[in-house]
Design goal:
The structure is a single chain. By secondary structure, the protein is α+β, with helices and mostly antiparallel strands. It has one domain: Hypothetical Protein Pfu-838710-001 (Beta Barrel). It is built from four helices and eleven strands; from the N terminus they run βαβββββαβββααββ. An eight-stranded antiparallel barrel has the order 1-6-5-4-3-7-8-9, surrounded by four helices. The relative contact order is 0.23.
């Protein structure tokens, strides 16, 4: 399985604006704003922790991801990760449920990705706050932190699913963190 290497930070609005300004000044390339719905499943091996099964919907696209966290005390996390695009996410959900998996967590996210050299930076808005993730090699993460002035920002060790389980609300048997409908 490929290894995903990333570091996550909590931001306030002022920090987000400053990071975006520094990304632009550094010549980073922004992608369009995406809206995601992420469903985390439980059951079987997933109940023992250390791994996750996620179905992510982004517009008309859907991606199934399996992750296994590698142990580390570093704020830069390492995970084995396998992903595949899914043509029919509703059918896949029915298959997973029929196999004994259950929806455990659902969280929504607004994400804008930026490309800076070999690093991908994501600025995320979730119902419970603003975050930034830098995904690259450890060396590149440290370089990007310096370029965008993020080296003093505290790292967030918790995953979005962990934060959702703490800050979300129970709905239809799952814990959900959704944006308020306007």
């Amino acid at each position: 399985m490929p290894i995903e290497i990333e570091k996550k930070y909590r931001l306030n609005e002022k920090q987000r604006r400053a990071i975006i300004r520094r990304l632009r000044d550094a010549g980073a390339t922004p992608h369009k704003l995406e809206f995601e719905e992420n469903t985390i499943y439980r059951g079987g091996r997933l109940d023992f922790g250390g791994c996750a099964l996620r179905l992510r919907r982004i517009g008309k696209r859907a991606i199934l991801t399996f992750k296994v966290r590698l142990p580390t005390s570093s704020p830069i996390k390492h995970q084995q990760e396998e992903e595949t695009e899914v043509a029919r996410p509703d059918a896949l959900n029915k298959i997973l449920v029929a196999l004994g998996f259950r929806r455990a967590l659902v969280y929504e996210k607004r994400r804008r990705r930026w490309k800076l050299g070999k690093a991908e930076i994501a600025i995320d808005e979730l119902p419970f706050g603003l975050f930034m993730e830098i995904e690259a090699s450890e060396k590149q993460i440290i370089r990007v932190e310096k370029v965008i002035g993020a080296e003093t920002l505290p790292a967030v060790m918790e995953t979005y699913p962990t934060l959702t389980s703490k800050l979300g609300r129970e709905h239809d048997g799952a814990i959900e963190a959704r944006f308020k409908k306007k």
